Amino acid sequence: MNPPAIPLHIVVLMGGWANEREVSLMSGAGVADALEMNGHRVTQIDMDRDVAAKIAAAKPDVVFNALHGVPGEDGSVQGMLDLMGIAYTHSGLATSVIAIDKQLTKQALTPYGIPMPGGRIVSCKELHERDPLPRPYVLKPVNEGSSVGVAIITEDSNVGNPIARGAKGPWQEFGELLAEPFIKGRELTTAVIDSAAGPKALGVTELIIETGFYDYEHKYTEGRTQHVCPAKIPPEIAALCEDYAVRAHKVLGCHGASRTDYRWDEELGEEGLFVLETNTQPGMTPLSLVPEQARVADIGYAELVELIVMEAVRVHQDKIKRAEDANG
User: Fold this and answer.
1) Would you name the residues annotated as active-site residues?
2) Cβ proximity of 281 and 144 under 8 Å
3) Residue 4: pLDDT above 70?
4) pLDDT digits (tens, 9 = 90+) for 115-124
5) How many whole angstroms separate alpha carbon 91 and alpha carbon 46?
6) DSSP H or E segment with residue 103
7) CB-hemisphere CA count at 13 Å for 74?
């Protein structure tokens, strides 16, 4: 691709202390290499408690947020950068707060006709007294990414019935969990990126797992999951995946890139497609789904990174203009 009209100084913010630290470091390294190849000046910063001072000292034009999980994905970093008046990639504060919280995401998306599994938040104390839903059901943290801490509870699960206090699972790490009905079927995902023409779905990938489900280990261990892109599914299901993904991107107010994940029960056709979540900070590692779908759509990795940066610049300029207009 051609070099940018105006090379920028870009801080790539990565690492941090979340469960997804190592993935973030891989994403950040790839992004930094691509930005330098595109002609930008890059400063890499590993997130720590002094991050605001380090960013202020670097004086970047843009921060590329390559963090995953808390605090890079939940609105904390976004709020800090808003206060500092610095442009940054991906979604803003309000969107990040809502999208990382699976229950808030349901409340935001389902009124717009985007189907999501039912369910409710339960205390882990309650789990040891009775099942919150008929088995099989899924337990997941309310605000973790990359399927961290997800458990599927079936009739033959080796956790007891009700779940024993000493059984290994997310109930030992979290005070409360989201319980959802288990949806049988196929794992699908759709990436959306912003461009001058607006948000665009890149396609649909099916994730085929030999055993278990698409958890953290399957996502980031080479060879554990087969990616089929484009997915071998009926065209009407592919179109519905893309439609839901773009609608979720718009309703939540995402910017730059997002990825919406699904379970599809093919026996039910279109009625069997359910959105599980929308990820506002999708991975950018060699195994990540957004760069893979971009390649299939003839968008190279460096071009994808550039599109995300240019959307950050556009959003920041719009913020400045709105502030100027408000002040007369």
Assistant:
1) 20, 146, 220, 259, 261, 277, 279, 283
2) no
3) no
4) 999 989 999 9
5) 20
6) helix 102-109
7) 11
